[in-house]
């Protein structure tokens, strides 16, 4: 019997699970929302009920003051929604608390991934391949030119530049949720045990990660340090502070940026980045296509990024796919 999946409907403001009268990552307030992770283009305040992992709910409370109506769901836990729909949260490997949402109804399975990556990350559980009928995938780096290098190579570049200039510091711009904590954790994994200095805007999120058991080592605030304290050190800041007046207090900073977009040289030049670090919390082109092959859905729905190339790949491989026209999705400072 043909399947039309009329019970799940992509609409401009999000994905509507019709029998349950719930929305996934809606871009405006709704009575009942299932949220994949805490980035602002997927999570927001104002919902009546917000269902997410405990980590994502803590992040949303910190960023958007969304404590009321928060309903925690652990990885692997299933909840029954209205209309005979069951939802299960599965690790997405994107940032702390990020989840794919498996929806089951009338014998059909739909996986909404939110954002995801396939590389190991010491700050969150790895992505789990979940077979389904419809697979909703992001396409942030959905072009063949995007192949992310091993993160160990990027850490070696950073530490090598630091060792070559002991009288300066390396100032790393990194997104406040996920990227900053991953860079710090990867530096620790690479053997860097020195104190790492933080812009004040990163402190609360780093402390929240530590509350959930992520070891980030010794962190100090720039506001309490002298230039001599920070010579030969790594300093972390939001991307917006890289060339800000704030950075003048640092000892001749070597500006770096941790982002998958650093693969594009023009982006590095636009930000006056001296040391581009190609570090992404999203899947690259090869990982996107490999994931589709491993999940092997009847149909792929593509959103959040470079949809045309991934659509074309599906056509060439005789796979059914469509692009979704959802609003409110942004690149982030990945």
TrEMBL record:
Record key words, sorted: Hydrolase
InterPro entries membership: MBL, RibonucZ/Hydroxyglut_hydro, Xnuc_lig_assoc
Keyword Hydrolase: yes
GO MF terms, alphabetically ordered: hydrolase activity; RNA endonuclease activity
Top-tier EC class: hydrolase
Known EC number: 3.1.-.-
Domain of life: Bacteria
NCBIfam families in UniProt: Xnuc_lig_assoc
PANTHER family: BLL1145 PROTEIN, CLEAVAGE AND POLYADENYLATION SPECIFICITY FACTOR FAMILY MEMBER
Listed name of the protein: Ribonuclease
């Amino acid at each position: 019997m043909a399947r039309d999946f009329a019970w799940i409907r992509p609409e401009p403001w999000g994905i509507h699970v019709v029998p349950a009268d719930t929305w996934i990552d809606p871009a405006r307030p709704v009575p009942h929302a299932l949220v994949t992770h805490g980035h602002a283009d997927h999570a927001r305040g104002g919902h009546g009920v917000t269902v997410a992992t405990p980590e994502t709910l803590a992040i949303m409370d910190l960023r958007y003051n969304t404590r009321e109506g928060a309903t925690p769901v652990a990885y692997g836990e299933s909840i029954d929604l209205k209309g005979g729909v069951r939802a299960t949260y599965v690790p997405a490997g994107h940032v702390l608390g990020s989840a794919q949402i498996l929806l089951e109804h009338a014998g059909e399975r739909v996986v909404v991934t939110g954002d995801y990556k396939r590389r190991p990350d010491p700050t969150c559980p790895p992505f789990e391949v979940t077979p389904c009928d419809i697979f909703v995938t992001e396409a942030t780096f959905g072009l063949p030119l995007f192949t992310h290098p091993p993160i160990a190579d990027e850490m070696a570049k950073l530490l090598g530049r630091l060792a070559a200039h002991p009288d300066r510091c390396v100032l790393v711009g990194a997104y406040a949720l996920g990227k900053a904590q991953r860079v710090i954790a990867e530096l620790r994994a690479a053997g860097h045990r020195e104190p790492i200095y933080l812009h004040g805007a990163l402190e609360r999120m780093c402390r929240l990660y530590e509350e959930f058991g992520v070891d980030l080592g010794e962190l100090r605030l720039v506001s309490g340090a002298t230039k001599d304290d920070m010579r030969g050190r790594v300093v972390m800041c939001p991307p917006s502070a890289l060339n800000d007046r704030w950075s003048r207090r640092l000892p001749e900073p070597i500006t770096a940026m941790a982002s998958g977009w650093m693969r594009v040289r023009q982006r590095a030049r636009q930000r006056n980045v001296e040391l581009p670090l190609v570090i992404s919390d999203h899947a690259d082109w090869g990982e996107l296509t490999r994931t589709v092959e491993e999940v092997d859905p009847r149909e792929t729905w593509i959103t959040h990024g470079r949809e045309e190339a991934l659509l074309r790949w599906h056509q060439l491989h005789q796979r059914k796919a469509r692009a979704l026209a959802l609003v409110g999705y942004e690149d982030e400072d990945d």
